[in-house]
Amino acid sequence: MKGTDIQLAAEYLLRGETVAIPTETVYGLAANALDEKAVARVFEVKQRPLHNPLIIHVADVEQITRYTNELPPAAQVLLSRFAPGPLTLLLPRNSSIPDIVTAGSPLVAVRIPDHPVTLELLRLTDLPLAAPSANPFGYISPTTAGHVEKMLGEKIPYVLDGGPCDAGIESTIIGFPDSVPTIYREGAIPKDHIEKLIGAVAVFAGKKIHAPGMSAVHYSPKTPLILCDDLEQVVRDHDHFRIGVITYGNYAVGVTADNQWILCKEQDWETAAHNLYAALHEMDERNYELILAKTFPEAGLGSALNDRLRRAAMKGATNDNRTGN
Ligand code: TXA
Ligand code: MG
User: What is the whole-number distance in angstroms between the Cα of residue 55 and the centre of ligand 2?
Assistant: First the structure.
């Protein structure tokens, strides 16, 4: 069932049940982070392996300090600018957070979502809510309550509807290994916005499969997807397929307009992020044989958008060997 009853959502969560919640990035699949059994149910509903940890969502900075041991100075600066907002921090956790949330790691991922409905819910429950994106493991994240209902509606008692997500792609994840601010997953806050505040940041380039955002395949539609620099050339090369196109600026030559999703005007990458997953959800229902997507310029948000499209494109290449979120 979906609806806008925050009180009802709070009651389910306090009873240890799983509820989908809106955030400014994507919808989350939430449970009381302090209740191991409730968190285990999130893994089960999502069919996510237990070695892939969850982000906890809290109402304010005071609550971050309730569940963590240390807030590095750079983290404080980032919070003063981006909280609430699409910023997730990896911080040393204290013993109140059960192992299942962090997959045994001494670090917990925490963020303050910038959505009035979920902030109200967090205040009502006074709980930290563990919530991965509310999609089955490996599939595209949901940016509307309708997306969640279609994918997981039968497995959970309630989808709290807060309207379409504003940002449309996941939060940026930052950790501080050896006191070096390091981006573990590119997301809705571009790297240059972060660097303006705290100076140079590193980008994590490890290969551990369970490291955040580093799994090769996720955010994947069922339809095979090719990411192209020269979209029109690739369209010509595939003219014998039924193709759908994702692009920006102008329509591509060689495909009828009703088979093209123009995500934004040239340069308006925030709008592209807002529209990307909704386009992929819709395209997946159109029975295309192939989706062709045009690469974004790498600067700013373009880098996070290309990251998501690259992972979506990996699926065909790896024969659906999913390792995603
Ligand atoms: O925007 C978002 O971040 C959304 C909304 C719902 O808040 N959440 C989200 O969660 O994208 P999820 O679980 O789909 O992706 C979180 C990523 C995963 O790659 C996970 O491995 C990583 O964060 N992560 C979570 N806790 C971690 C930890 N303690 N250490 C390292 N990585 C962690
Ligand atoms: Mg996810």
Answer: 10
Q: Once rounded to an integer, what is the mean pLDDT over residues 158-176?
A: 98
Give me ligand 1 centre to Cα 16, in Å: 21
Percent pLDDT > 90 in the chain is 91
Contact yes or no for 235/271 (Cβ under 8 A): no
Superfamily of the domain at 2-203: DHBP synthase (3.90.870.10)
pTM: 0.95
Reported as a pLDDT band with limits 50, 70 and 90, residue 241 is very high
Among protein residues, the one whose CA lies closest to atom 6 of ligand 1: 28
Q: Is the pLDDT of residue 104 over 50?
A: yes
- Per CATH, the number for 225-323 is 3.40.50.11030
Cα separation, 281 vs 288, in Å, equals 12
Running DSSP on this structure, what letter comes out for residue 35? -
DSSP 134-176: SSSTTBPPPSSHHHHHHHHTTTSSEEE---S-SS-SPPEEEE-
**Is 88 touching ligand 1 by the criterion CB < 6 Å?**
yes
- Ligand 2 centroid–CA 46 distance in Å is 10
Residue span(s) of the chain under CATH 3.90.870.10 come to: 2-203
- Which residue of 119, 147, 165, 170 sits with most ligand 1 atoms within 8 Å of its CB, as the best mutation to test the pocket? 170
Tell me which H or E stretch contains 223: none
